[in-house]
Amino acid sequence: MRIGELAERTGASTRSLRYYEQHGLLQARRDPNGYRQYTEEDVRLVTEIRALLAVGFSLEDTRPFVDCLRRGHSTGGSCAESVEVYQRKLDEIDAEIRVLLGRRAEVAAQLAESCPGCFVRG
Residue 116: its pLDDT value, please? Predict the structure, then answer.
């Protein structure tokens, strides 16, 4: 399939697909006329990349998942390298939650001080 069909099937823009290719996450084959050609496997790779990006992973974070799929695993998260990325991401999210909870406590304290009778939601 050509790049337009891959874009349509995955919801990615053609620009994004070229960007993934630039970063080595996709490897298009070329027709004699120079058109990029993709396979069903590429649909799977792009779907994985987009799913990971949608939940906050960086493009570079997706590399172990793509490599895992290329090695024939049924899911991109079933390889040790992918599990490490998942664990690191969870640690980052937990740290962000701690920061946000600290900020929330500060704002709630400021509200309580400024408005002693006001209700603090949550």
Answer: 87
